[in-house]
Amino acid sequence: MSRQAANIIAAQIITKPDCVLGLATGSTPIGTYKRLIEMYQAGDLDFSEVKTANLDEYRGLPRDNDQSYYYFMNQHLFQSVNIHLENTNIPNGTEPDAEKECSRYDKVVKDLGGVDLQLLGLGHNGHIGFNEPSDHFVKGTQCVDLQESTIEANKRFFEDISMVPRQAYTMGIGTIMSAKKILLIVNGEGKADILAKTICGPITPKVPASILQMHPDVTIVADEAALSKMPK
Ligand code: F6R
User: Fold this and answer.
1) 34-74, pLDDT tens digit by residue?
2) Where are the alpha helices (DSSP H) in the chain?
3) Alpha carbon of 177 to those of 120, 155, 174, 185: distances in Å?
4) Which of 38, 49, 153, 163 is most deeply packed, by most CB within 10 A?
5) In whole angstroms, what is the distance from residue 170 CA to residue 216 CA?
6) Probe ligand 1: pick from 1, 23, 25, max atoms within 8 Å of CB?
7) Distance between CA 178 and CA 49 in Å, rounded?
8) Ligand 1 pocket by Cβ (under 6 Å)
C-alpha cells in the first residue's frame, strides 16, 4: 500500500514540480512518507517547489508537542526531504479563536490555488480529516469536537487517554472534495467494514468518507485485509 501510494504521489511531483499536496497524519501514511524519503535520497524526487496543506491539527497542542501534527510532519517527512518549511501549511492548534483560525486556513488553501493531490486516511468511524460523522457535511475549515471513538483510537499515541485533545481544526469536506485528485489509503482488517460502507454504502454525512463517491478522480489503495468486506 505504502509503495503504491508513494508512486502516485511521486508521479504528481514529477509531472508538476510546484504542485500542492494535501497531506494526512496518523499511522496509515507513515510507510508512504518513508518511501517518498527513500526516493528523494535516491535522487528521484525533488520537493524544492512542492507546497503542502495538511488536513488537520489538534486544538490546543503547541507545535513542539510531540503529538502535534506539526511535529509529526516534520518527523516523518519534512525534515528528511528538501521541502521549504515556508511552503508547508498546517492549521495552528494554538490559535484559541476558532473562527479566526478556520477562516485563516481556508484562505491559505485558496491562496495556494487549491490542492492538486489530497492524501487521505480513513477513520474507523468513516471520518476524513477530522470531519466526524454528523447530520450534515461541512464545507470549509471547522473546529470539531472529537468523538469518543476517535479519542479512543488515537489514545495509543498519548501517555494517557486524558491527554488526548478533545477538539481539532480540520479542513472541511468541501475543501477536501475540491482537490483535483484524491488518494485514499487504507490498511488492516479493522477498517474493512468502514471501507465497504465508504465505497458501496449510501452517501451520508454519517459516513463522511462516503462523499468521495461523488468525486471525479479518487484512487483507493488498500491492502487485502481492508478490502476483505467488499461485496462480491
Ligand atoms: C489524519 C487524519 C485522520 C486519519 C484517520 C486514520 O491527518 O486526517 O483522518 O487519517 O484517523 O488514522 P490512522 O491512519 O492512524 O488509522
Assistant:
1) 999 999 999 999 999 999 999 999 999 999 999 999 999 99
2) 2-15, 30-41, 69-76, 98-111, 148-154, 173-177, 192-200
3) 11, 28, 5, 16
4) 153
5) 22
6) 25
7) 22
8) 24-28, 55-56, 121-123, 127-130
